[in-house]
């Protein structure tokens, strides 16, 4: 039995299956050493194999061609295309957009998350809320972006453990009236449940812990253009409610982008929140 398993494993060993993809060599010469997105295509015209981004397309694609663990994808690949951008922000935005739209076979991350959740504090009590219920771009006092309710609840548990907070005051368990929680007896709760700690101090420590995960509201009344430039290219990344609508070269072109309301996009928020809030990039209000 063990010999059969070993033979089977050797058959699928990437190191043994790998061969340099000579059939892709014809695309190498024209690869630019510039920021952008690249795509590995199979024979299918509908679903690409892989979409990636880099500040140096040529260097990144070359590293793929030498990666033993990607032998299967390289054998399936038939051609490589690419799209130049003005910089890293544009590359990140375009990569995320293309992965959501095209659903490449070998991309696991950045696919659309339909269960996006966050932690909202209402009346001092944290609760897990869904992006299906409220607009994350416009709702204040949201903390963290999570792929599921379970992940959000686990984050609250982690905060409770690290800060010695009371699970009952976090809404994670029920408490018998007038009795301390079980974790207090174990020395893991500071005693807000039984008067050993004031509710105000408990709340202050909770908010301090959550502050590191604050989700910032969209700071504009409508869509904006974030300007990104390099020597030979200028792009205006059009964004509304943290949702990336597309990139254009002129303001006149921006008016042609769809302004249909979209649900909150966590990838767009993660890519854009720092560049927009930092003040390091020119921002053009488009409304």
TrEMBL record:
Gene3D superfamilies: GIY-YIG endonuclease (3.40.1440.10). SMART domains: GIYc (SM00465). Keywords: DNA damage, DNA excision, DNA repair, Excision nuclease, Hydrolase, SOS response. GO terms for biological process: nucleotide-excision repair; SOS response. Residues 33-108 form the GIY-YIG domain. InterPro entries: GIY-YIG_endonuc, GIY-YIG_endonuc_sf, GIY-YIG_UvrC_Cho, UvrABC_protein_C. This is Excinuclease cho. It comes from Biostraticola tofi.
């Amino acid at each position: 039995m063990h010999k059969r398993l070993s033979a089977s494993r050797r058959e699928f060993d990437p190191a043994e299956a790998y061969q340099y993809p000579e059939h892709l060599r014809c695309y190498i010469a024209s690869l630019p050493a510039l920021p952008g997105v690249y795509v590995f295509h199979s024979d299918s015209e509908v679903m690409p194999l892989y979409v990636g981004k880099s500040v140096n397309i040529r260097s990144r694609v070359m590293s793929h061609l030498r990666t033993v663990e990607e032998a299967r994808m390289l054998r399936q690949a038939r051609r490589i295309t690419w799209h130049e951008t003005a910089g890293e922000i544009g590359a990140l935005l375009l990569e995320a957009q293309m992965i959501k739209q095209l659903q490449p076979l070998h991309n696991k991350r950045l696919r659309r998350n339909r269960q996006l959740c966050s932690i909202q504090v209402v009346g001092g009590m944290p609760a897990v809320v869904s992006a299906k219920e409220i607009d994350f771009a416009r709702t204040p006092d949201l903390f963290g972006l999570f792929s599921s309710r379970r992940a959000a609840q686990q984050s609250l548990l982690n905060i409770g453990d690290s800060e010695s907070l009371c699970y009952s005051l976090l809404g994670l368990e029920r408490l018998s009236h007038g009795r301390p929680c079980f974790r207090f007896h174990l020395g893991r709760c500071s005693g807000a449940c039984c008067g050993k700690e004031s509710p105000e101090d408990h709340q202050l420590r909770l908010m301090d812990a959550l502050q590191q995960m604050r989700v910032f509201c969209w700071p504009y009344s409508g869509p904006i253009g974030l300007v990104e430039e390099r020597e030979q290219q200028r792009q205006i990344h059009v964004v509304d409610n943290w949702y990336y609508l597309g990139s254009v070269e002129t303001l006149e072109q921006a008016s042609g982008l769809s302004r249909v309301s979209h649900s909150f996009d966590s990838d767009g928020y993660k890519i854009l929140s720092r560049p927009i809030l930092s003040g390091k990039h020119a921002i053009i209000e488009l409304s």
